[in-house]
């Protein structure tokens, strides 16, 4: 399975398990993730959720071949699997822990903004290369990165789209702690286990109260981003970016205003 799901001791673990393709996420994988999150949120036996990848890589983001194959009129509507996953993640009432090793590209970084406890290995590398693809931020990243890291640092990461390391992610507030790679998973599992043993109603209420003030703004930002993302996805700059990617060359945006 490209998404490996296991439940033990009150913890649902969702693991990206497509190493041959750098854990790139397909529509089918998003559907599995969304269904698992929704089921966990109503399952009294699940008290915490852990999202992780492989020691070599968290996820390379969207599988571009799969993603572009489904691009068309209305391609970024809320019925798309990626929307269903992010809606399930953002709306999950139970605590979500993420453990990140290696690269977390695009949606791989964006999804972390919607988790509760995020830990990374010292080999982690984050990037939000939307501008490099002729696109714009997604799923409230334009809001949440700026809130966490401040406008100028968020502008650097979202406008240039360049990778940044574990220590900088910690300084930006994207991750709570940086650990040696060999210790990451055990530590994250331990934190999830602590959450699973605490009063479930207390944890759910605390999470709801912390997210309450931002909920409407996040929803509004996602809608605004999606409107622009959808328009840009079929634009000339994105076409050049994706064509260059598959042709293994640098894109040339000089002819576009």
Question: How are the SSEs ordered, and which strands pair?
Answer:
Blueprint (H helix, E strand, L loop, with lengths): L2 E6 L2 E6 L10 H15 L6 E5 L4 E3 L4 H6 L11 H11 L4 E5 L2 E3 L1 H4 L6 E5 L3 E3 L13 H9 L1 H10 L3 E2 H6 L5 E3 L4 H14 L2 H13 L2 H19 L2 H11 L11
Parallel strand pairs: 2-3, 3-5, 4-6, 5-7, 6-8, 7-10
Antiparallel strand pairs: 1-2, 8-9
Helix pairs in contact: 1-3, 5-6, 5-10
Description:
The protein is α/β, with parallel strands linked by helices. The chain has eleven helices and ten strands. The strands form two sheets. The chain has a six-stranded mixed β-sheet, sandwiched between helices. It is found in: Peroxisome.
Question: Which keywords apply here?
Answer:
four-stranded mixed sheet, ECH/Chromodomain_protein, Enoyl-CoA_hydra/iso, six-stranded mixed sheet, ClpP/crotonase-like_dom_sf, alpha/beta
Quickly describe the structure.
The chain has 257 residues and is α/β, with parallel strands linked by helices. It has helices spanning 27-41, 64-69, 81-91, 107-110, 141-149, 151-160, 166-171, 184-197, 200-212, 215-233, 236-246, and strands at residues 3-8, 11-16, 48-52, 57-59, 96-100, 103-105, 117-121, 125-127, 164-165, 177-179. It is built from 11 helices and 10 strands.
């Amino acid at each position: 399975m490209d998404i490996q799901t296991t439940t033990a001791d009150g913890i649902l673990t969702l693991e990206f398990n497509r190493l041959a393709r750098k854990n790139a996420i397909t529509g089918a994988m998003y559907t599995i993730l969304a269904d698992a999150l929704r089921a966990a949120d109503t399952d009294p036996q699940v008290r915490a959720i852990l999202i992780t990848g492989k020691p070599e890589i968290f996820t390379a983001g969207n599988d571009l071949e799969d993603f572009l194959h489904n691009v068309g009129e209305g391609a970024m509507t809320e019925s798309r699997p990626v929307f269903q996953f992010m809606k399930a993640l953002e709306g999950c009432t139970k605590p979500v822990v993420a453990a990140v090793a290696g690269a977390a590209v695009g949606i791989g970084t964006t999804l972390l903004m919607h988790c509760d406890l995020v830990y990374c290995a010292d080999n982690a590398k984050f990037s939000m290369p939307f501008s490099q693809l002729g696109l714009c931020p997604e799923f409230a990243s334009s809001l949440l990165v700026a809130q966490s890291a401040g406008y100028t640092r968020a502008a650097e990461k979202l406008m240039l789209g360049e990778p940044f390391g574990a220590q900088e992610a910690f300084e930006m507030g994207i991750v709570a702690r940086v650990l040696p790679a060999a210790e990451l998973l055990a530590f994250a599992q331990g934190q999830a286990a602590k959450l699973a043993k605490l009063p479930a109603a207390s944890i759910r209420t605390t999470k709801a109260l912390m997210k309450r003030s931002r909920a409407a703004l996040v929803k509004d930002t996602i809608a605004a981003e999606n409107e622009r993302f959808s328009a840009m996805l079929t634009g000339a700059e994105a076409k050049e970016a994706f064509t260059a990617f598959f042709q293994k060359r640098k894109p040339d945006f000089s002819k576009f205003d």
